[in-house]
Amino acid sequence: MKLPDNVDTLKLYQSALAAGVAINPGPEWSTDKGYSKSRLRLCFASPSTEQIREGIAVLAEICRREFGVPARIANVEKRA
Question: How much is the pLDDT for 4?
Answer without folding.
Answer: 92
